[in-house]
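User: What would this chain look like folded?
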Amino acid sequence: MRETLWHVIILLGVATVVYFFNLGETQLWDRDEPRNAGCAAEMLAQGQWVVPIFNDELRHQKPVLLYWLIMSAYSIFGVNEFAARFWSAALATGTTFATYALARRLLGSKIALYAAIALSTSLMFDVAARAATPDSVLIFCGTMALMIYVIGTFARKGGGLQLVRENVWFPSGRWYVAGMYLMLGLGVLAKGPVGFLLPMAMIGLFMLIQTLPQLSRDSGLAGRGPVLRFLFGCFRTFHPTHFLKTLWAMRPVTGALIVLVIALPWYVMVDQRTEGDFTRLFFLGEHFGRATESLENHAGGIWFYPVAILVGFFPWSVFWGPVAIGLLKNGRSSLGSPSNELSGARVSACLMLCWAGVQVVAFTIAQTKLPSYVTPCYPALAVLTAAYLCQFAEGRSKGDQRWFAAALGGLLLASLLIILGGGWAASQYLPSQTWLATLGAIPLLGGAGLIYAVVNNRHRWIAPIFSVMALLFCVGLFGYGTVSVGKEQASRVVLDAIEKDATVASFGGLESSWVFYAHRPIYELSLEPSGVSDSNDVSWLERSGFWKVKARPSLEQFLSRYPAGAILTTEDYQAELEKRLPEEYVVLKTTDYFLKNKRIVLFGPQTRPLARDASESREH
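Assistant: Here's the prediction, encoded as C-alpha cells.
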C-alpha cells in the first residue's frame, strides 16, 4: 500500500509537470485546435449542446463529446487556451493511471510505474495531452475499457497471475462489463464507431488466441515450415466455430445495448436537427471517405506507421530493437499459454501486441494516414518497453547486451540529429529560436548516464536514469520550447485591431485561428469580382438552415451589405485588394504569417486615427 501511494505521488508529479506546465501560454495551433475550441465557444454562446458549429457552419468532422468537455471548462475558466486544453491534459492524466493499473495487475507495480512514466514522456502522447483535439479523449476511453477488462478478468495472488474464474477470459462481474462498455460508448461519442470497434477487436483477438485449444504432439505440424505453421494457426484462430464462440463470450448484446444507450440519443438528435447532413457527412465523408481514399494529401505506404511510432514514441522508441528481439525469441510462448500455465509476461505480451497490432493494421489499410491515428496504442507500447527495461536490469531479458548497446547508439544518434537538424531547421524558419537545438543535449547526457550505469554494472539505474532524461526532455520541449515558438504566432496583433462590431471577411485564404481570435464568424470571399452595388440585394445571405455552409460572396457583394466591414488577407492578394476596395479603405495592421514568408494584412475604413504602429495607407 505504501509503495502504491508513492507511485501515485510520482505519477501525479510527472503528469502535472508534463501535461499542465505552461499549458495555456501559447496560441491555439492551426488548424484543428482553433476549430475544436471555436466550435465549443460558438455552441456555448448559442446556448445549444447538440449541433457542432464552427464559423457559423456545421462542423461534421467529429462527434460532440470533446465540445461538451471544452464547454464545461469554458464555464469555469473562461474562453481561453488553458480551458480549451484542460480536459485533454486531465484525461491524459487519467490514461496514465489507467496504464499503471492495467500493467500492475498483469506484471506488478515496478513495471507498471515505468510503463506509466514511459507513456507520459513519449512525444506524440504529450502532443495529444496538450492539444484541444479528441485524441486524448479517445485514448482515455479505450485505455480505461482495456484496464477494466484486465482487472475484471485477471487477479494477482502470491505474486502470480491467474484468471478470476478458471478458463473464463472475459469479466464475469456485471459492473466490470457495464463499465467497459460504458467507456466504449463514450469513445463513440468522442471519435465515432472506431471508439467501439477497435478496442473490441483488440480484446476479441486476444481472447481468440488465449482460448485456442492446444495442439497435440501428433498434429502433423512438427517439422513443418514457419509459414505453414503460421497459416494453419491463423485458420484455427479464426475458425467460424471458435470465432462465434469467442464473440458470444464477450456479451455483445449487452455491450451493444449499453453503447447505444450512451451514444445513440445524440446521433439521433443531431441527425434530426441538421436534416441528415451531419450523418451523411460524418459517416460517408469522414469514415468511409478516409478509409477508401487519401484526403487532404494525407497518404503513406506500409512504412508510414512504423516510422510514425519511432518518432512519436521517442525517446522510448530507441528500445524497440531489443524489445522486438525479445518478443521474437519468446516466439509462440509470447502469444498464448494454456490456462493452467498462466504467465503474466506471456499474457501481457499477447494483449499488448493485439492492442498495438489491431490499431496499426487497421489504419495501415485505411488510405488517409496521420501519425495521431495510432496514438491510442501507445499505452501498450509503454508496457512492452517498461517490461523489457525492468527485465534487462534484472538479467532476465531475452535481448542481449549487443542489442541494448545498439539502443544506446540510437539514442546518441537521435540526440545529434536533434542538435544538428533542429539547429538547421530553426535557422531556416525560426531564426530567433535556434536555442531549441540544445534540447538534444538532454538525451545526449542521458545516454552518457546509461553508459556509465552499464559499464559499472549498475543496471538497476537504467530505468530511473532514462525516466528522468525523458521527463526533462519533454518538459523542455513542451513546457518551454512550444512557449518560445508560440511567441512567433503574431496573428492576434491583427485580429485584436478589428473593431468590436465589425463584420469580417477573408480574401485569398482563411485560417481557423483567425475565426477563434476574431471572436466572430468570418466570410470567405470569392476571388471573382462582381458588379453588384445594390445594398438591398442580400440573397447571398439566405440559408435553408443555420448549420449550412455560408455563401462565398464577392468582395463587392460583401461591401455592399457591410460597407464598414474588415477584410483579412495576405501580401499575395494585397495589390489586388487595393485596386478593388473603396478609397476610404486603408491598411490598418500587418503582422508576420507564422512559418510563412509573407504577412497578414488587415484592411478597414479609416474612420479613426491609425494606431502608431499601423502600416502606411495605400496612398503611400
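The beta strands are 53-54, 57-58, 154-157, 160-163, 504-507, 522-525, 566-570, 585-592, 599-605. If you want, I can go into more detail on any region.
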